[in-house]
Amino acid sequence: STFRQTSFLEYGDLIKRSTEMISSWAELPLAASEQESWRRSFTNDAFRSYRSIWQESVQEMRRLLGIAIEGVKDGALSTGYETLRMMGAFDRKISGSGTISAAASMFLASRYAVSPLQGLRVAATATGADTDTLASMTASILGALNGDEWIAPFREQSQDADYLVAIANAFDSNLQQKSTLGHSAQRISKRTTAAFLEALEKLTTPTPITLLDGRRAMLIAKEELPCTGKTYRAWRWRLETQDGQTIFIKKTRRRSAKDIPPLLETRIEVVRLGLKIFVDDLAKAKEFYTSLLGLPLDKETASAFTVNGILSVQRSNNRAFRTFERPQDGTCGPLLCLRVTNLQEAYRMLSARGVKIVEELRQQKSYCSFRVADPSGNLVEIFESTSSATPAPC
């Protein structure tokens, strides 16, 4: 009904009209149900259960729309979070339900109809809610109400923007019924999915492949994910379909004995060793190490400096320090740092040998690192520089 709206929509009218038009959306569509493929997939008993659930959903939607109507009455006096809470949008057990997402997005679109970008921001940052679904549905309604000018600057930044526009155009022209972007209706089972993944594992890039829905795609990239823990390994494939969609597929597998390299055949190649210490007063520390001890200053940032090519002195309230359990006396011991040539191999080897991983792999601005504990509990940071122009800490 929003797309068919030709006159100015009064504040809260979207929810009001949806309530008034309940007869047009609350009735289970049965006109040609016996001929429809989705109906033939139900047994009669299963369809009776479906009908019952449909009626329950209708009653739930009416209740939620009632909450939304009360919420819009507060107008500018409320940001809308209290109304979302009353709907259950922050209850993790039910926040992702279709009824709650639909009602919550209608409420936010009504509440922020004159400020669509702010409405989208509220939906996307409603911590505790199903924000990706909520923001997508809210933006869709706001786009129908206000056009796309307000969100156009973000379109080119979106993944598969052309594909999304093509789907929207097909929907607008009713072309989806003609399979312009249509997919195969073949049944997808666990067996066919397993066979597809098995075939995918054997492919090299770039290679064409037929997806389970019948579309043709190209395998663009394949990589083993680094942060997979001690028990499992994981891979990710990136595919691009002929109609412009990017698809990521992930698969995990429990580690086997053959995944663990022999002890003497794999070694970690350390190219640099350093030491980090943490101080509360960076200026006094700099004076001590450079002026009093006479150590040469190699580099300096707002939160750290390095002397003599080996010692990195860092402010104790920076991000790196927060990962430590600080003793009761407020001090923190030094941190040994090892720069290696292949961080993922080092992580995989140490994990396979049962070394305690204190901090999983993480990407910093100029380097990637993880932390382990030696047999006595001393922390060791192992890192690999990701920028040749910017030297990594230690």
Short characterization:
This protein is α+β, with helices and mostly antiparallel strands.
Mean pLDDT, all residues: 80
Strand percentage lies at 15-25%
The number of helical elements comes to: 13
Instruction: Please report the total strand number as a whole number.
Output: 12
Strand order of the largest sheet: 6-7-8-5-9-12-11-10
In sequence order, what are the helices and strands, one letter per element? HHHHHHHHHHHEEEEEHEEEEHEEE
Q: Classify the secondary structure makeup into a structural class.
A: alpha+beta
Q: How are the elements arranged and paired?
A:
Layout: H1 13-20, H2 22-25, H3 37-40, H4 44-73, H5 81-87, H6 98-111, H7 116-124, H8 131-146, H9 152-155, H10 161-172, H11 190-202, E1 207-210, E2 216-224, E3 232-241, E4 246-254, E5 270-279, H12 282-292, E6 297-300, E7 304-307, E8 311-315, E9 335-340, H13 343-352, E10 357-363, E11 367-373, E12 379-385
Parallel strand pairs: 5-8, 9-12
Antiparallel strand pairs: 1-2, 2-3, 3-4, 5-9, 6-7, 7-8, 10-11, 11-12
Helix pairs in contact: 1-4, 4-5, 4-6, 6-7, 6-8, 7-8
